[in-house]
Amino acid sequence: MDYFSKRYHPPGTSPGTLTRPEGAEAAAFVITLVDYSESEFLEKELATVEECQAVLSRPTMTWIDIAGDVSPAALSTLGELLGLHHLALEDVLNTGQRPKIEEYEDQLFVVLSAPNLANDKITLNQVSFFAGENFVVSFHHGNNSGFGEIRNRLRKGVGRIRTQKVDFLLYALIDTIIDHGFPLLDSLGERLEDIEEELLAKPTKSTLNDIHLIKRELLLIRKALWPQREVVNYLLREEHPLITPATKVYFRDCYDHTVQIIDLLETYRDMTASMLDVYLSSISNRLNEVMKVLTIIATIFMPLTFIVGLYGMNFGNGNTEGSPWAMPELNWYYGYPMAWLVMIAVTAGMLIYFKRKKWL
Q1: Rounded to an integer, what distance in angstroms lies between the CA atom of residue 114 and that of residue 96?
Q2: What are the backbone dihedrals phi and psi of residue 65, each rounded to the nearest 5 degrees, phi first?
Q3: Residues 165-181, buried b or exposed e (16+ Cβ, 10 A)?
Q4: Would you list the domain boundaries of the chain?
Q5: In which element (H, E) is residue 46 found?
Q6: Per-residue pLDDT of the chain (360 residues; tens, 9 = 90+)
């Protein structure tokens, strides 16, 4: 995953500057307009931001979804049409913002981090929302925002969105972003289970690398998702004219989801920390087993080395004087096989002794 993807303006840049940060390349973006009421529904893709103006004057609810890297010119035009604050517009361009919520007169500005898992790669995309009296504008820099299901519900008139005010649409979008954390954590949980099995079976150096990788991913996911609980808690606790009491009940459920995600993150972080201890213990145990085998082998060969070394001194009694201190065994007819029998008996005796002591 991209660990550090925040883009900044150069130090000293005037606040609210709407220019692409240094290093950011121009990219295509798609503007989708959804205008609805309980009895009406309109959905179309727009070529320019100016096309929104005709719809905004209607008494219906309007959702403007912009996918991709929006251009500074289009963002500035949209800000003029809707009266969006220039500081918030700057935060839309500078991705990697910490999840937060800010009030601007009769509007709300919300920044969230949308976790996404594709091809076993985790990405965190910034999603920004502006909410006004009868509109919501969403910006997401990834190709997959997960808002397709919200559009389907609006098309079919399923659920409460088309019968409620714009705050319920904001809740539905925020809830979708937060719920994206569950499949991501499920995937991380499966990876942790595989690593745990590998730890108990035969840990390798790659196992340690996997543990460090998933530990770092959890740390950065926690950094991105933890503040989202504060955002939802603000919408739940603070009074704002855009948020009705009826919708706060749903934000309470959304808050419960953030708490569950944080609990899972903390559990997985504890698991990775304990896995490092298990890895070190497993490596230590393997080293102890190897040393145990080598020690047993060395201990068995110690008396055998003594025996062959003793009889390798060649102090024989084959001289004419017949020294009484010579080795009579060297002239025995069965001396050589007798030496082998003694060494085999010593080895067998030592193995039996080690077995009874439960050293083997």
Answers
A1: 11
A2: -110, 125
A3: bbbbbbbbbbbbbbebb
A4: 29-282, 311-356
A5: strand 41-46
A6: 554 455 666 666 666 666 665 555 556 788 999 999 888 899 998 888 888 888 888 888 999 999 888 888 888 889 888 888 888 888 888 887 889 999 987 899 999 988 877 777 787 888 999 999 889 999 987 655 678 889 899 988 888 888 899 999 999 999 999 988 888 888 888 888 888 888 877 888 888 888 888 888 888 888 888 899 999 999 988 888 889 999 999 999 999 999 999 999 999 988 888 888 888 887 887 788 888 888 888 888 888 888 888 777 766 655 545 566 667 777 777 778 888 888 899 889 888 888 888 777
Residue found under tokens 């003793």: 310
Give the H/E segment covering residue 45.
strand 41-46
Residue 130 CA to residue 136 CA, distance in Å, equals 6
Is the Cβ–Cβ distance between 92 and 139 less than 8 Å? Answer: yes
Residue 58 token pair: 């209607």
Report d(CA 138, CA 126) in Å as an integer.
10
CA distances to 8, 74, 208 from 93, rounded to whole Å, are 9, 11, 38
Tokens of 191: 């990876």
39 Cβ contact partners less than 8 Å away, ≥ 6 residues apart: none
The third-level CATH classification (topology) of the domain covering 29-282 is Beta Polymerase; domain 2 (3.30.460)
Region of residue 2 (phi > 0: left; psi between -120 and 50: alpha; otherwise: beta): beta
Read off the tokens for 55.
């719809």
Residue length, the chain?
360
Q: Is 146 exposed, middle or buried (0-12, 13-18, 19+ CB in 10 A)?
A: middle
Contacts of 3 (CB under 8 A, 6+ apart): 216, 220
Single-letter amino acid, residue 150: I
Over its C-alpha atoms, the chain yields an Rg (Å, rounded) of 37
In sequence order, which residues have a C-beta less than 8 Å from that of residue 30 and are 6 or more positions away?
45, 66, 67, 68
